[in-house]
DNA sequence: CATCCTGATTGACGTAGATCAAGTTTATTT
DNA sequence: AAATAAACTTGATCTACGTCAATCAGGATG
C-alpha cells in the first residue's frame, strides 16, 4: 500500500529513506467496500485520503436531491472535501466507493505536522494542487464551451479508464448530463461510425 | 507596489526581513493600459503575475471565435496561464487588462530559484493553490447545477466588486451566458423585487 | 456638435438537452 | 436459479437558453 504512495510522491520530489519512514507513520490504511461512504455531507471531513486501489467518487447533492459528481479518484489520486478538511467546517460533498477501495488516510493535525517535519511535502502538494488547478480549469472551460457530445468525447479521449470502469449514469452526472442524453449521444456516435 | 505583494504573502506564511528583500528581487513591475494584452494565446506564458492595482481577465477563444472568460484577477490576485507557465507549452488563454493595471511579474526560472532560496514560498503557493482549487471546484459545481439566474445571483453575492467594475457582457461570458440572457435575467430580478 | 463605438435592451424564433414514462437488459443478492 | 435492484434504452414532449436582428443609450473622439 505504502509503496504506491511513496512512489507517487517520489515522482515529484525527493525524499530520504528516513523521511519516507516518517511520512508513512502519519498515514493509516482503510478499506472501503462498494458503496461505502468515506465522507458524508454535513460531517466534517477529517482526513485527506490517498487511493492505493479502487475508485472513489465525490459528489454534491443539490436542493432538488440530484447528485452531481465532481470528481473520481482512481489509484494514485487523492480524495477529500478539501474545503472541509482544511477549514474544519462541514463538508458539502459526499465521497463513496464505486469499487472495493483501499486508501491511506492522514488527519489535519498529521498533515500539518508532516509539512513541518518534511518541508518538501509543501512542495509536493504545491505541485499537486498546481496540476489539479490546471485540470479543473480545463473542465470548467469544457463545461461552459462544449456541447454535450464534445464533452463526452473529450472525456473518453483523456480518460478512457474511467469510461470502462464507471457506470454510464455516473459518467453522465460527471459531465453534467441527464443519463438519457448520454445514452442517445453514444448511440449517435456509434451509428455515425458504422456508416 | 511591492508592499501589496509582501503583505499578501505574510497573511499566509512568515518571512524574515531578509527573505522579503530576496523575494522582491525576483519580481519586475509592469503597467498595462486598458485592453493591453499580458498574454496572447499561442504565445508561451513566460510569467506569473501578481496584480497590485487594476483588473485583468483571462479568457479562452473557442473554435467559433467566441470568448469565454475563465477568471478575473483583481488586486491581490495572481494571473497567468498556469499550464503554459509551468510546462513551457503554448498558452491556450489570453489575458488582458480591463482597467489600467499594475503587476509584478516573475519568470519560471525566477520562480524556481525563489522556491529554493525561500522554501516557505512552496508553502505559500501550496496554500494559495489549495484555496484556488476550492474556489474553482465551487464554480464547477455552480456551472453544472445552477440555473442561469442562480449563477448570477451567487456571483453577485460572493463578488459584488466584480459586478460593479466589470461590464455586463463580460460578466455574462464569465458565467457562461449570452449577454442577452443576462440582460433579461436582471430585468426579471428587479421586476420581482419591485412587486 | 456630429459621429463613432461599445454596451445594454427587447422581441421573435429555434434548438439542445431535460423531463417523464415505459420497457429492456444486466448485475447483485438470497 | 429466482428475486430484486440497478443500469441502460427509446420515444414523446417541454423549456431554458441561445441566436439573430433591430434599436437605443452613453462615453469617447474628431
UniProtKB/TrEMBL annotation, chains A, B:
Pfam families for the chain: cNMP_binding
Keyword Kinase applies: yes
Keyword Lyase part of the UniProt annotation: no
UniProt cross-references to InterPro entries, sorted A to Z: cNMP-bd_dom (IPR000595), cNMP-bd_dom_sf (IPR018490), RmlC-like_jellyroll (IPR014710)
Alphabetic keyword roster: Kinase, Transferase
Domain Cyclic nucleotide-binding: 30-114
Gene Ontology MF terms: kinase activity
Protein name per Swiss-Prot or TrEMBL: cAMP-binding domain of CRP or a regulatory subunit of cAMP-dependent protein kinases
Origin species: Pedobacter caeni
Amino acid at each position: 500500500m505504502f509503496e504506491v504512495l511513496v512512489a507517487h510522491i517520489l515522482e515529484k520530489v525527493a525524499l530520504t529513506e528516513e523521511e519516507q519512514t516518517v511520512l508513512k507513520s502519519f498515514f493509516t490504511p482503510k478499506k472501503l467496500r462498494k458503496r461505502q461512504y468515506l465522507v458524508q455531507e454535513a460531517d466534517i471531513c477529517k482526513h485527506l485520503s490517498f487511493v492505493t486501489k479502487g475508485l472513489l467518487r465525490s459528489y454534491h447533492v443539490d436542493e432538488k436531491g440530484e447528485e452531481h459528481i465532481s470528481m473520481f479518484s482512481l489509484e494514485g489520486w487523492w480524495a477529500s472535501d478539501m474545503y472541509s478538511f482544511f477549514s474544519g467546517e462541514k463538508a458539502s460533498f459526499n465521497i463513496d466507493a464505486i469499487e472495493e477501495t483501499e486508501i491511506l488516510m492522514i488527519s489535519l493535525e498529521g498533515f500539518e505536522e508532516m509539512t513541518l517535519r518534511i518541508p518538501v511535502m509543501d512542495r509536493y502538494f504545491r505541485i499537486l494542487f498546481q496540476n489539479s488547478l490546471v485540470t479543473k480549469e480545463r473542465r470548467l472551460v469544457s463545461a461552459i464551451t462544449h456541447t454535450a457530445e464534445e464533452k463526452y468525447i473529450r472525456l473518453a479521449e483523456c480518460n478512457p479508464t474511467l469510461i470502462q470502469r464507471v457506470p454510464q449514469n455516473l459518467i453522465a452526472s460527471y459531465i453534467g448530463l441527464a443519463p438519457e442524453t448520454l445514452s442517445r449521444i453514444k448511440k449517435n456516435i456509434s451509428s455515425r461510425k458504422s456508416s
